[in-house]
Design brief:
- With 149 residues, the chain is mainly α.
- Helix content is 84%, strand content 0%.
- The protein has helices spanning 3-32, 36-67, 74-109, 120-146.
- α1 packs antiparallel against α2, α1 (3-32) runs antiparallel to α4 and α2 runs antiparallel to α3 (74-109).
- The chain starts with a helix and ends with a helix.
Length: 149
C-alpha cells in the first residue's frame, strides 16, 4: 500500500472514531439512560479512550507524512502536518487540560451531584469549551481526509 493510501486510511479511521464517539455514542447514552451521571461517566470513559486512540493516530500520521515526504509537494505536506498537529493539540488540550478540571469538579460535588454544586456553572462552561474543541478537532478530521491525495 502506498503512503498516500495509508494516510487516507488512517485519516478516515481517525475521523470515524471521533465522529462515532462524539456524535453517535455519547448522545445515544444521554438519550437512552435515565441516570445522567452514569451516562456522563460512560461517555467520559469513551472520550478518554478516544483521546488515547487519537494520540496514536496522530503519531502514525506524522510517521506517514515523514515516510512519504518525497511524494508530496511541500505545500501539501505542510498543510497536512499543520492539520495533524492542530488535531493533536485539540486532543491534548481536552485530555490533559480541560477534562481533569471537569473530573475534579464532578468529584468535589459529592453525593449531592453537580446540580447542588456551587461550581455547576464552571462545570457547564468548561464542558462547553471542551465540546467546541472536540467540534474543531472533528472538523479538522474532515479537512484531513479532504486534503489527502
Amino acid at each position: 500500500m502506498t503512503p498516500a493510501r495509508c494516510r487516507l486510511v488512517v485519516a478516515t479511521l481517525w475521523a470515524g472514531s471521533l465522529w462515532t464517539i462524539g456524535y453517535l455514542v455519547a448522545p445515544t447514552l444521554f438519550a437512552t439512560l435515565s441516570d445522567r451521571a452514569l451516562a456522563g461517566s460512560i461517555a467520559g470513559s469513551m472520550f478518554r479512550n478516544g483521546a488515547v486512540l487519537s494520540g496514536a493516530f496522530a503519531l502514525l500520521m506524522l510517521a506517514l507524512l515523514q515516510w512519504g515526504a518525497a511524494a508530496l509537494p511541500t505545500a501539501r505536506r505542510r498543510l497536512l502536518l499543520g492539520i495533524v498537529l492542530a488535531m493533536l493539540g485539540c486532543v491534548l488540550l481536552n485530555y490533559l487540560g480541560i477534562q481533569p478540571v471537569i473530573a475534579a469538579i464532578r468529584e468535589a460535588a459529592g453525593p449531592g451531584g453537580l446540580d447542588a454544586s456551587p461550581q455547576r456553572k464552571l462545570f457547564g462552561a468548561l464542558h462547553g469549551v471542551s465540546m467546541l474543541v472536540y467540534l474543531l478537532q472533528s472538523a479538522l478530521a474532515g479537512l484531513l481526509i479532504w486534503k489527502q491525495e
